[in-house]
Specification:
274 residues; globular; Rossmann fold; alpha/beta; 8 helices; 42% helix
Length: 274
């Protein structure tokens, strides 16, 4: 079939033409954990594409700083707090009016399973799996009504592979991979796509905070952690930059990516190729 066609949900696509110039002008985006690292980079890149970005973070100063930088709106909330999450997702709440949802917020705790605090395990799953589910659930009616939406979940190579001492993080990311696929199946025919991005180790405060814990767990100096632990399985011997993840997120939100759905896009320097 050739010539102009109309994709489900109203996104135009034309065989053989490049849609890389598509923008997010007029779109409203919510990025969680957007006060630093990958979230801040995604907020900046999606704003550059023309979107109005809601910068959600636990830290008010960081949320306001990034929102000012990208011309967006700060939103302070603790995604591990049931009442705060319910307010975000209530009818008319911030999550119910967005065209793009980037589930990025996360945290880490490093300990062997036998020493892992159960309440810490539950909190990590609440922030990194329960919250993405509830935010997506709240956002979908608006996306379905408009016939267009993008769900981008910042997963991890740990959504595909396991590492010792990270039971909660690995469990949450594996769960996020499954949730994304269900969302993709349910929403694809209604103009809403869902995909994950699976980075290796990124130069973020979260990773920097792991170095001391990994040094203690492995009995080595902090200076050795990056090469001997973090990048041991990667054939590209450097940390990934947040802007590189944000560039892929922007692509997944574009019209050019309207056929990308239910996939896991891996940026791990060759880690999972082994």
């Amino acid at each position: 079939m050739s010539g102009p066609t109309q994709a489900p949900g109203g996104s135009p696509y034309i065989s053989g033409q490049n849609l890389s110039g598509s923008t997010l002008s007029g779109r409203r985006v919510l990025v969680t954990g957007a006060g630093s690292g990958i979230g801040a980079a995604c907020a900046a890149r999606l704003a550059q594409a023309g979107a109005t970005v809601v910068v959600l973070d636990l830290d008010r100063d960081r949320a306001e700083r990034v929102a000012e930088q990208v011309g967006g709106e700060p939103l302070v909330a603790d995604l591990g707090d049931r009442a705060a999450l319910a307010e975000l997702c209530a009818p008319g709440g911030p999550a119910t009016t967005v065209d793009v949802l980037v589930n990025n917020a996360g945290l880490q705790h490093v300990a062997p399973v036998e020493d892992f605090p159960p309440d810490r395990f539950a909190h990590i799953l609440s922030v990194m799996l329960q919250a993405p589910f509830e935010l997506a659930r709240a956002a979908l009616p608006h996306m379905y009504a408009s016939g267009w939406g993008r769900l981008v979940h910042i997963s991890s190579v740990h959504g595909l592979r396991a590492s010792p001492h990270k039971s909660a993080y690995v469990a949450a990311k594996h769960g996020l991979e499954g949730l994304s696929k269900v969302l993709a199946i349910e929403g694809g025919g209604r103009g809403v796509t869902s995909n994950t991005i699976c980075p290796g180790y990124v130069r973020t405060p979260l990773v920097e905070g792991q170095i001391a814990a990994q040094a203690l767990a492995h009995g080595i100096a902090e200076s050795e952690v990056v090469d001997r632990v973090l990048l041991a399985a990667s054939s590209v011997k450097r940390l990934l930059e947040p802007a590189e993840v944000a560039e892929l997120a922007a692509y997944l939100c574009s019209d050019a990516a309207s056929y990308a759905n239910g996939s896991s896009f891996v940026l791990d320097g060759g880690w999972s190729a082994r």
